[in-house]
Design brief:
Structural class: alpha+beta
Largest sheet: 10 strands, mixed
Number of helices: 6
Radius of gyration: 20 Å
């Protein structure tokens, strides 16, 4: 019987996107490489557990869930989470950032200083700039200040990010223009926490890293994987990767696979099987967030 592996998610490193597997195996994903796998007949997707611990009941989870956790494990996972504001005593320094995902799609967020830009790569930020650095609660208050005073959200749905990815401005300067203007407005605001040290604007562009920049940009995606299913398979050449998304050139055209849909399944190596998983037409830019100003 073929060896089955459980995916532990996509991580970004200095080598680019890396698929990680339960047990410690890593698969570096280089553009041009074929990515192909299938789900065994009769396979069941099970909860990935919480905070490094297995789900005690190996609960089943829906194929369309990007969290791959049952309700109880999802609750436990957020019980000590910066994102859920349950770690107010975290002594580490944090950075506040502005991230741009496409025209009109700008967010504010925070990340631990020690993580560098990893959080921005994981979210699929096309470009970003640091805004300031300081203790966790000072970073949180700054984030809230921007939301309240400038109407900047702290979340952008992945569907909106994918919708604009094929129609980004050509130059890095154009891509950075929105966050440059917003950065200037943010530092001019009163009410910044004294403990937060402002940082000057410096746009960092990830378009080339993701493979969506100018000459590096391949064919636009036409569909996205809705879910994996028992007996299904997908394979194609990796033409781009942004955040958790892999853009695969398949016989159906370029299909976006959100690797969060892979977790919880036992996956098998595949060869030349056709794309045999449910897909849906990729949304285009209509209906995304309006401009900030």
């Amino acid at each position: 019987m073929a060896q089955a592996w459980k995916c532990a998610g996509l991580r970004w490193s200095a080598d680019g996107p890396v698929l990680t597997w339960v047990g410690g195996r890593r698969s570096v994903l280089a553009r041009g490489k074929r990515v192909a796998f299938g789900v065994a007949e009769g396979g069941v997707r099970t909860c990935v557990g919480a905070r490094g611990n297995a789900c005690p009941v190996r609960a089943g989870v829906p194929g369309r869930s990007t969290g791959a956790r049952c309700e109880e494990c999802a609750r436990l996972d957020r019980a000590h989470s910066v994102a859920a504001d349950t770690m107010a005593d975290d002594p580490r320094p944090y950075r506040v950032y502005l991230a741009w995902f496409g025209p009109g799609l700008v967010k504010v967020g925070i990340t631990a200083y020690e993580r560098g830009s990893a959080r921005l790569l994981e979210q699929g930020a096309v470009c970003f700039s640091w805004l300031g650095c300081g203790p966790l609660m000072a970073a949180r208050r700054t984030e809230e200040l921007l939301r309240a005073a400038l109407g900047v959200p702290d979340r952008i749905p992945y569907a909106h990010k994918r919708a604009v990815r094929a129609a980004l401005p050509e130059s890095a300067a154009e891509r950075a223009a929105e966050i440059a203007g917003l950065h200037a407005r943010a530092v001019a605001l009163g009410g910044w926490p004294e403990a937060l040290t402002p940082e000057p604007f410096h746009g960092v562009d990830h378009a080339a890293v993701f493979g969506i920049d100018g000459a590096e940009r391949g064919s636009a995606a036409v569909a996205e994987v809705a879910e994996l299913v028992a007996g299904g398979a997908i394979g194609g050449e990796l033409v781009a990767a942004a955040g958790p998304d892999l853009h695969l050139a398949t016989e159906r055209g370029v299909v976006v696979l959100d690797t969060r849909l892979m977790t919880g399944w036992e996956l098998l190596a595949a060869e030349g099987e056709p794309c045999a998983v449910p897909v849906r037409e990729l949304r285009r830019a209509a209906g995304v967030q309006e401009g900030l100003f």
